[in-house]
Amino acid sequence: VTAHPLLAAGTLLVETEKDKAYGLNPANGEVTWTKSLGTPWNPADIGCGDITPSIGTVATPVVDPATNIEYLTHETYVSGTSGPARWYMDALSVSTGAEQPGFPVEIAGSAQNAPGATFDPTVEMNRPGLLLMEGVVYAAFGSHCDYGMWKGWIFGVSTAGEIKARYTDNATETGAGIWQSGAGLTSDGPGTILFSTGNGGAPSKATPGSAPPSNLGESVVRVRVQPDGSLEAVDFFAPSDAPHLDENDADFASGGVTGLPSEYFGTAALPHLAVAVGKSGYVYLLNRDSLGGFAQGANGSDQVIQRLGPRGGVWSRPGVWPGDGGYVYIPTSSGSSQGGYLDIYKYGLSGSGQPSLSLAGSSEQAIEPSERAFGWGSGAPVITSEGTTSGSALVWIIWSTNRTGAGGELRAYDPIPVNGRPVLRFKASIGTATNYSMPGIGAGRVYVANREGKVFAFGSPVNPALTGSSTSFPTTTTGSSSEPKTLTLTATEPLIVSSLKSSSTQFALGTATPAIPATLRTEQTITIPITFTPTEFGLQGGTLTATTS
Asked: C-alpha 235: how far from its chain's center?
């Protein structure tokens, strides 16, 4: 299973590389329906070993909540079990798996923006997650192992089963695939899409962002929907070393484009921000209203808000937590079995009032060796929370030792690093992890599917032994202390509380009542005074951990 599971209308949706789609009971895993889509394609036909032994559905589907229809793509053969390939888009009922009228739709044809370019399904793969926007489902394509005359493509299929958009980002050359390690296409408003591209056809001469060239390799690109449904590039950014990235297969498209929510990030002058990063390891903070073009800065440099790094190549998209002042999470990799680290960036303003990111923590600083390295193939972060409530967030990530997926784990980290290190809150084995995979979230559970074709559901205990609620402190001046607040925990069964620990030195624990170790009866409480002494500016959060019998 490469696409990550989706929960919709009480059904857990799972697609496989065997060209099968499933609807599962999300509580107990029972199969409620199965849909066979066709004969899966064999990548050995072209000598490609990225995904083996077969390819069916690779991209994460999208569900229309208004109709409870799931849209997905699958690869198969024109006929039989060998020969030319075909790609189709399907529309399945979430509740029954039934194919909807007008589907499946064959993905085919010539580009509307470059009539001389015709889609070759045998050399193309749909890896990025699908996007549903204004009644049209968009699917982006890159290559199978850089085989043949591949290009970057976006097809848009209406929910009625009509192809509306056939766009290529590389009119005259080979390359510029859109794959993003599975990260979905991004939309930040009606009729507009952002994506990143890989090697091939990078810009070679200085070009403003408002005048995108016909070949857009190694770029972040914005396209807009035209009145006839076609797509047109209207803005772009390519790093100043884009030709060098081309020469070294250093795809910008190995990381997706993450828009930062304007309610929590940005300034009056720069309200719309995005973060993009690729194999070269540089982290770019971009202005979504003017991406920056190519070589538009001083002396042919980048015209971006900020460039940081390099910290290591990235094969995933950045994750974002807008609470606690704003953080961005990026797992890096050296592009080898040694892997990289989980880097955490804090959002803020520079001395000149510009939006900026600064490295606030990295698993590189972890004390435990097992928590330090992130193997090549580890996935993108997914953040859960109660809105922006401080202390409510967890950063979920699928971790593996290397690209084989060996020793896969689901991990959860606190959103705020402590002493420059991510705080590992939870981990569990998931067998052989799928490269660059992400967990699915829904109804209080975290769903993980793996390379062995297994699906796991994780959730909090039904009857936790100790319960409590969060507490908050008033604005407190750095270097001074607040009045103590009392946190109350209640036992749901007889137990012994053997220790209490704060995740941050900014939140000091007083003497508990009753004293530790405390033997509690059912419904008996233990109270802990907590004093807040901030050492850092901005919103701060901490976690109390109680060890019980």
From this structure: 23
Quick check: 238 and 201 in contact, CB under 8 A?
no
Q: Which residues pair with 110 in a beta bridge?
A: 118
CA distances from 483 to 175, 202, 540 (A): 61, 59, 16
Separation CA 470–CA 507 (nearest Å): 13
Task: Compute the C-alpha angle 405/277/536, nearest 5°.
Answer: 100
Rg of the Cα atoms in the chain: 24
Amino acid identity of residue 325, one-letter, is G
Residue 300 structure tokens? 């042919």
Q: Give the separation between CA 159 and CA 173, rounded to whole angstroms.
A: 32
Q: State the Cα–Cα distance between residues 459 and 442, nearest whole angstrom.
A: 10
b/e per residue 526-543 (b: at least 16 CB within 10 A)? bebebbbbbeeeeebbbb
Question: What digits encode the pLDDT tens for the residues 98-153?
Answer: 999 999 999 999 999 999 999 999 999 999 999 999 999 999 999 999 999 999 99
Q: 407, 352, 402: which is closest to 375 by C-alpha?
A: 402
Tokens representing residue 306 in the block: 């900020």
- Those residues with Cβ within 8 angstroms of residue 45's Cβ, 6 or more apart along the chain or in another chain: 82, 85, 122
Reported as a single tens digit per residue, the pLDDT across 204-220 is 999 999 999 999 999 99
- CB distance 15 to 1 below 8 Å: yes
Tell me which residue has tokens 């079995």. Answer: 337
Among 416, 401, 524, which residue's Cα sits nearest to residue 467?
A: 524
In the block, tokens 């901030």 appear at: 534
Phi-psi sector, 405: left (phi>0), alpha (psi -120 to 50), beta: left
Q: Which two tokens stand for residue 190?
A: 């009606």
DSSP 8-state symbol, 406: T
Rounded-to-integer distance, Cα 266 and Cα 44, Å: 47
Query: Which residues sit opposite 287 in a β-bridge?
Result: 273
Contact 58, 3 (CB under 8 A): yes
Percent of the chain with pLDDT over 70: 98
Q: Is-contact 483 41, C-beta < 8 A?
A: no
- Give me the amino acid identity at 402: N
Q: Give the contacts of 38 (CB within 8 A, at least 6 positions apart).
A: 19, 56, 74, 76, 77, 88
Reduce the DSSP state of residue 163 to 3 states and report it. Answer: strand
Cis preceding-peptide flag for 213 (omega within 30 of 0):
no
**Strand 105-106's sheet: what is its strand order?**
62-64, 69-77, 85-93, 105-106
pTM, 2 dp: 0.85
